[in-house]
Design brief:
Blueprint lengths: L1 E6 L2 H19 L5 H17 L5 H17 L9 H20 L12 H7 L14 H7 L3 H13 L2 H16 L4 E5 L3 E5 L8 E6 L5 E7 L3 E9 L5 E3 L4 E8 L1
Antiparallel strand pairs: 1-4, 2-8, 3-6, 4-8, 5-6, 6-7
Helix pairs in contact: 1-2, 1-8, 2-7, 3-4, 3-8, 4-8
């Protein structure tokens, strides 16, 4: 099964983009090759760019507080495990404290590193980081992988409070949904959303064996999925046969 996620608002869209970047960074940083560490640095800069929104940090802190208040309202409910509840609240508190104690915008402390900023100013230029443009960066790429990984770990550590907050919030959001199998006659699916409830994320799982690609649209009143086939040149064509997929709406 292949999972596709569709955000219903800009806040969740930003969180998913950052999660995607942190996932990429987590795969690149432990490797040995200099080219992988080059792309790891580029990803750090992308995280700083996406996370530069002034209100991002305050919005995440408010979301963590909101989730904690919601969970604490379940205390005393006989169908809720107090131990499990305490464990989740503890994760929220840890994420909140870490993010709250980080200073300024995402990665702001990295902007004082002139060497990194010299790379950032040229990394978007095609070929702009080659040895005659940035000889000190080229020299760094020749270092032993252990030393390069140590440098990356030091820089990444400054971004970890954000990564932890995202992990907690998106985990709680995804856990709020219940997966259901739905039919798509002729490759088309539409569903009206119940009034009075706000959904933030839609998750669609399709069979990898069928090679289907979902085109997803959604807003507060309705969601729609059109299943597509991808041809040899990558172009999408409507899938006209009856099919089905797994749908999860997360509030």
């Amino acid at each position: 099964m292949v999972l596709y996620e569709h955000p219903f608002n800009e806040s969740i869209r930003t969180m998913l983009r950052l999660e995607h970047l942190f996932d990429r960074l987590g795969q690149l940083a432990p490797r040995d090759a200099a080219v992988d560490h080059h792309h790891a640095i580029a990803t750090i800069f992308e995280i700083m760019e996406v996370g530069s929104r002034a209100d991002l940090k305050s919005d995440l802190l408010k979301d963590l507080e909101r989730q904690k208040a919601r969970l604490n309202s379940y205390r005393g409910n006989p169908s809720i495990s107090e131990d499990a509840l305490d464990s989740v609240v503890e994760k929220i508190d840890h994420a909140y404290d870490g993010l709250n104690q980080s200073s300024g915008k995402v990665g702001q402390s990295l902007t004082s590193n002139e060497w990194l900023m010299s790379i950032r100013s040229r990394i978007s230029i095609p070929g702009g980081t080659c040895e005659f443009d940035l000889p000190s960066y080229y020299a760094w790429q020749q270092f032993d992988p252990v030393r390069r990984r140590a440098d990356l770990s030091r820089w990444i550590e400054l971004l970890l409070p954000l990564a932890e907050a995202l992990n907690v919030l998106l985990g709680l959001l995804r856990d709020s949904g219940v997966a259901q199998r739905v039919s798509a006659p002729g490759g088309q699916f539409q569903q009206s959303l119940p009034p009075g409830r706000t959904y933030h994320l839609m998750r669609v799982r399709v069979s990898a064996a069928e090679g289907l690609v979902p085109e997803i649209t959604g807003h507060r009143l309705m969601v729609s999925v059109r299943l597509m086939n991808q041809d040899a040149e990558g172009r999408l064509r409507p899938h006209t046969a009856d099919s089905s997929f797994e749908l999860t709406l997360c509030a």
